[in-house]
Specification:
mainly alpha; 2 strands; globular
């Protein structure tokens, strides 16, 4: 299957438009979704509402139905049985499915899912897993949707947490050795690590991840989870997220002699040099060899994602999470001198990959070490002419959409305005074309990028267009 690469679809030639239309129409008369092809794309025509982003409020509305009754104003008189009713399990499964679209929007918006195979692992009849999952979801509802402070204690969430911990401790203290390292037990520890990460409890999150690493080793390593991709992918995402939060090494692939995951074949295949801008090619030539390889892989991944958007095709999930692990674990192993083009590019790649692979929809975690490192680097080195102008504009915009709020970071707004002028940006389409010449996934960030551009125009009164 040929790749269609264009930073501005209005400028493609007639042959390319014809090819795009052919891919859009492919499978229209078929009842079943196409299987993924060699390029890792499959038709999205049979998947209804697959690319409709969900609102955070929908999770609140769904989960409200699961809460136990309340008597009085402050006290909940509830108890939880060891066995969970099937209706409750079904409702929790629905919430988990919806929540996944917020937790990993790239995968759920662009990842091909064979009919009948939802991208989540069921709780099953495991009571400990149910209670910890309920605790995690309720904490998310309180902290994010209801904007409650950390000091406010939710009695229902607390009871779920205590009950789940009690059950898992009993399991770990028992005689059933298989149960101690079962998928259900590992899933509970993973959820605890994820909840601690979400709450900013770094040491607790790290402790859970080390426990998870030991359990995984006792099972024979990560390869034993190949038949449970959801559990495997969330293990990777949690490990990478906690490593960035703690500014430390991940627990998996941390040994220098340990082989790193291979790049998916679809993102290392050769591309014509014509797809790169002159500035982009010069950057690749100037970078450290291993870092340049990562840059090219991510560039190809973005081209594949944007191709899928243009042709209404979905990407095999293995390509998405395979690229995530191969790229991010490599970036975490690397380190270069401050002020160098290599370190600027590594930080930009970390911010970008964190954004598309790990970041929850519409959420920025406060006081994140990556945010601090990125801010400090840009403030010190951004205007020293050591970074090519179009690459610097990309670095600034990636920070704006993933790590910072432009309205709160006046320095960033000023840098973005100055760099846009320097690059000759007169309209949003001009800026969009520059961003796509580096790395940009339109489906995820076109709307937020346009909003940032419009806000800069309003703040500064620049003579910039609004197209």
């Amino acid at each position: 299957m040929p790749f269609i690469v264009s930073s501005n679809i209005d400028k493609v030639d007639a042959a390319t438009r014809k090819l795009i239309r052919r891919h859009v129409m492919r499978g229209k008369k078929r009842k079943k979704a196409d299987r993924p092809g060699a390029a890792g794309l499959a038709s999205a025509d049979s998947i209804q509402n697959h690319r409709t982003q969900i609102r955070l409020q929908e999770v609140l509305d769904m989960y409200t139905l699961l809460q136990p009754g309340c008597f009085g104003t402050h006290r909940y008189f509830v108890d939880f049985p060891n066995e969970i009713e099937p209706s409750i399990l079904w409702n929790m499964e629905q919430v988990s499915t919806v929540a996944m679209r917020i937790m990993f929007p790239l995968l759920t918006e662009m990842g091909f899912q064979p009919e009948g195979k939802a991208w989540h692992y069921p709780i099953g009849r495991d009571a400990a897993a149910f209670h910890i999952n309920a605790f995690a979801v309720q904490s998310f509802i309180d902290r994010v949707l209801r904007r409650q402070s950390e000091d406010m204690v939710n009695p229902v969430a607390t009871l779920h947490h205590q009950k789940g911990l009690k059950l898992i401790r009993e399991r770990l203290d028992g005689d059933d050795e298989e149960a101690k390292i079962s998928n259900a037990t590992i899933g509970v520890v993973l959820k605890l690590a994820s909840a601690a990460q979400f709450g900013g409890y770094v040491e607790i999150a790290q402790q859970h991840m080390h426990g998870l690493w030991e359990m995984t080793n006792m099972r024979g390593g990560l390869r034993v989870f190949q038949d449970n991709p959801k559990l495997l992918v969330e293990t990777w995402r949690c490990d990478l997220g906690i490593a960035l939060l703690a500014n430390s090494d991940p627990v998996f692939y941390r040994q220098p002699t340990e082989p790193l995951p291979d790049y998916p074949e679809q993102v290392i295949s050769s591309f014509s040099p014509s797809i790169y801008s002159q500035e982009d090619m010069q950057l690749v030539q100037d970078l450290n060899g291993h870092l340049a390889e990562v840059w090219l892989v991510m560039r190809k991944f973005c081209l594949l994602a944007n191709l899928g958007t243009q042709t209404r095709m979905l990407i095999q999930p293995a390509i998405i999470y395979g690229t995530m692990t191969a790229v991010m674990y490599r970036l975490l192993r690397m380190g270069f001198a401050a002020g160098t083009l290599d370190e600027a590019s590594r930080l930009g790649l970390l911010a970008f990959t964190h954004h598309i692979f790990l970041q929850w929809q519409d959420m920025r975690l406060p006081c994140h070490p990556l945010s601090e490192s990125y801010r400090n680097y840009l403030q010190v080195h951004a205007l020293r002419d050591t970074i090519p102008p179009r690459i610097l504009l990309w670095l600034l915009m990636i920070g704006a959409i993933s790590l910072f709020s432009v309205s709160d970071e006046l320095w960033l707004a000023d840098y973005l305005r100055r760099q846009a002028e320097r690059c000759g940006v007169k309209t949003w389409k001009d800026g969009q074309e520059i961003l796509k010449s580096s790395m940009w996934i339109s489906l995820l960030d076109d709307n937020s990028g346009k909003q940032i551009y419009d806000s800069l125009t309003e703040m500064s009164g620049l003579v910039l267009g609004t197209d």
